[in-house]
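Lecture 7 notes: from sequence to structure.

We start with a single chain of 118 residues. Read the sequence below before looking at the structure.
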Amino acid sequence: WDRNGELTKGKNPIIIGAGANHWYHNNLMYRSGIVALILAFFFQLLGLILGIVALVQSRKVGAKNTPALWAIILSIVFMVIGIIIAIVIVSSLGSALAMCSELGTGVHDVNGVTVTCG
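Now the structure, written as tokens:
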């Protein structure tokens, strides 16, 4: 078992479940990259941080970690999209609040559009 682990750089076949032969690789950086990729869709900052950590750790041992790289790319893209959406929403709310402060409370007709302030 030990000699095979040395020759295969940590990859040893193990039997799990119903006798299936699987390759086991005890390298958490690959798993971290996959987790980072999943997090990139839901929690971009966490996905970015974990992706960077996984990529750095993988490169230290000379391994390629494509999921970590994609996690970094997607996290950055989704964060930029989120920031753009937040800017649009804040500017829209700001103009709507400014209009309502001018018009006062109630229902108003502005250029054929009904605006309710209150």
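The chain is about 65% helix and 20% strand. Keep this in mind for problem set 3.
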